[in-house]
Design a protein that fits this description.
The chain is of the alpha/beta class. It has a domain of 120 residues: P-loop containing nucleotide triphosphate hydrolases (Rossmann fold, 3-Layer(aba) Sandwich), CATH 3.40.50.300. The chain has four helices and eight strands; from the N terminus they run βαβαββαββββα. A six-stranded parallel beta sheet has the order 2-5-1-6-7-8. It has a two-stranded antiparallel ribbon with strand order 3-4.
């Protein structure tokens, strides 16, 4: 089952920050808000750790452990594809984007992949004492922060804990993308 290609790429927006800053928390709040506005989203999440999505002892797990390079598990409810990597090489975001069915979504949200050349929102908590990355990354379009007064940036500052404000910003950005297929 191959990915469906489209003439124009689906708008892609990454959320970047150090681990533990709140990227997943923000995305899990943002996704239902975008869905309520009619925006169909795909998510690509980067992990620095090994992981398994199937359950030890189940058939899909046993098939993968037996040596299958790819296992696609399908039901009437959902399907997922597990592909074994080499354990060393990070998959490129562009390769992962190519695996998606772009006809099924209006927006691809990415958690991580801070080095990729896609639009980004930086999640920043000044109390953590970490520097902003946006000063060195021209792809960052806004900073979502829990302390705007302590966040020096010439970019738009989004209130991290106000999902409606972040949703409005993302929808405005999406509407301005040339290949946007999202709602008007």
């Amino acid at each position: 089952m191959g990915a469906v290609s489209v003439a124009e790429p689906t708008p892609t927006l990454a959320f970047i920050a150090a681990s533990g800053t709140g990227k997943t928390t923000l995305l899990t709040a943002l996704l239902p808000a975008l869905k309520a506005r009619g925006v169909r989203c795909a998510v690509i999440k980067h992990s620095h750790h090994d992981f398994a999505v199937d359950i030890p002892g189940k058939d899909s797990y046993r098939l993968r452990e037996a040596g299958a390079q790819q296992v696609l598990l399908a039901s009437p409810h959902r399907w997922f594809l597990v592909e074994e990597g080499d354990g060393v090489t990070e998959p490129a975001l562009s390769d992962l984007l190519g695996r998606l069915d772009h006809s099924a979504v209006d927006l691809v949200l990415v958690e991580g992949y801070s080095q990729a050349s896609v639009a980004k929102i930086e999640v920043h908590r000044p109390a953590r004492g970490l520097p902003l990355r946006c000063a060195d990354d021209p792809d960052v379009i806004a900073v979502a922060t829990d302390d705007p007064g302590a966040t020096p940036s010439t970019l738009p500052l989004l209130p991290l804990n106000d999902v409606d404000a972040v949703t409005a910003f993302v929808c405005e950005w999406l509407h301005g993308q040339p290949s946007s297929r999202g709602p008007d």
